[in-house]
Amino acid sequence: MSDLEDKLYTVKYTPDAVSHLLPVQECCRICKSKICTIVCPAGVYEWDENMRKLIVNYENCLECGACRIACESSSLGWEYPKGTKGVTFKQG
Amino acid sequence: MEKRENKTEVIVVGGGPAGISCAITIARAGKEVVLIERGRFSGSKNVFGGAIYAQPTREIFPDFEKTAPLERKNIEHKFALLGEDDATVISYKKKPENPVSYTVVRGKFDRWMAEQAKNEGVILVEETVVRELIVQDGFVKGVKTELEDYYADIVVLADGVNSLLAKQIGLRGNLAPEDVALSVKEVIKLPSEVINDRFHVNDDEGCIYEIFGGPMLGMLGLGFMYTNKNSVNIGLGVTLSELVDRGLKPYELLDKLKKHPEIAPLIKDGELLEYSAHLIPEGGYKKVPLLFGAGVMVCGDAAMFVNNMHWEGTNLAMISGKIAGETAVIALGKQDFSETALSHYQEELENSFIIKDLRTYKDLMSGVHERVGEFLGYYPKKINSFFEMFTSVDSVPKREKYHKFIKSIFTDRKISDLFKDAWTAVKLLWSILK
Questions:
Q1: What is the pLDDT of residues A16-32, one digit of tens each?
Q2: Which positions 271-330 of B are in contact with A (Cβ < 8 Å)?
Q3: Residues 351-390 in B contacting A (C-alpha not used; CB under 8 Å)
Q4: A27: domain CATH number?
Q5: Could you tell me the residue range of the domain that residue A48 belongs to?
Q6: Domains of chain B, earliest start first
Q7: Three-state SS for B217?
Q8: Which of B110, B120, B361, B392 counts the highest number of beta carbons within 10 A?
């Protein structure tokens, strides 16, 4: 995880106060693969077993869209952050 | 046409290569066009491997080489077939008078393109997300942003691989994990002289690596390296379904690639400047969406216009944008924005390399998917073990070594499987060349 943190540290973000990623927690609770917690290149999603809840670190999102397509039940609410928010790539 | 506030002739959604090429083509014909970009500036949400192609770029910006922010002109293309810890590399090098491609940094290059577009009359609106298309009587009539509604005779969707807008109006369905590759990239800072030495190039000359195997052995994935002036891009793209099925984290694969003995010395002591990720539309011809409708056209990544066999994308984006722009100009001339009028876009695409190339490789992805473990796993490893055998010096007679190598192929794999591999390869080749 610390390797990924080092990577994300290099990315410029302007986080919004609200998430642009909206999982449907009822779907997450019965989701077997929880694949978003694996394929997301920014480790945005974490499953909290105690809370039985998907934690969304949306402020780290690289806006690639992989989670939306990989989502087993196609239930993930996914939109672009507001125009002034989100990631700004300088070296893309 | 009724006159209303916030009404223009064409709205282009997405300020990348496709959208800019489209908008500038329309502005040059004297028509009014608004280009809407969701990022702070063009290029700020864009990621790619690293190179733009000179000839197609010249079609939009004839003199771009004089003023555009270019990194290095590519003079060498390397193909590295990585085993677990060994590698076979072939390389093609030529110093052409007119380079095929240049490495660029999108945050600089796309921004430069958008600036040119502005100078030529395109109305550029940045930091604005189009949330929805306005559809009336079956015609796309405009866009809803966070703040306002804007109307236009034609809306062009150049909103990238995720194109939520093309989906909203039913031009395409949901993307499947097989249809996209997830790519992660690191830009690593190195002094210019170090890059020159490690990649055997002079100042302003660049080298491209296409990387097969290594941590992606047996997977539908490809690694890449590109050289900028003072940095090196290293990344890989793996079909999302492979990552899902195998439960792999993309950045862990990249970390493994960076440690491979063939790659590690090239980036040694470099400092990570930026990490990024992006989806690549890789569905090919069979997954191209409907490309036009009444009052609307789709171009670039939003239209699945990527030729993954040749690592091409920005060129297809620029030329499809240009064709959409030309179609819009004709439609505006006739004041006809019907599906029939805009079908001209599809016709011109069919006549261009874009659809022709996509069609050439239409069976590629399904063919490779079918035998990915063999074509991108077993055989790359076998090629490396051939060269290991060929270069070994151990007092074993050569004929014995050859016999052992040939025998190993038949013990590794059943004869029926070898026939199947060959048959798939022949079928693929035939589908490309027929």
A1: 999 999 999 999 999 99
A2: 272-279
A3: none
A4: 3.30.70.20
A5: 2-84
A6: 7-69+104-172+289-360 (3.50.50.60), 178-281 (3.30.9.10), 364-433 (no CATH)
A7: coil
A8: B110
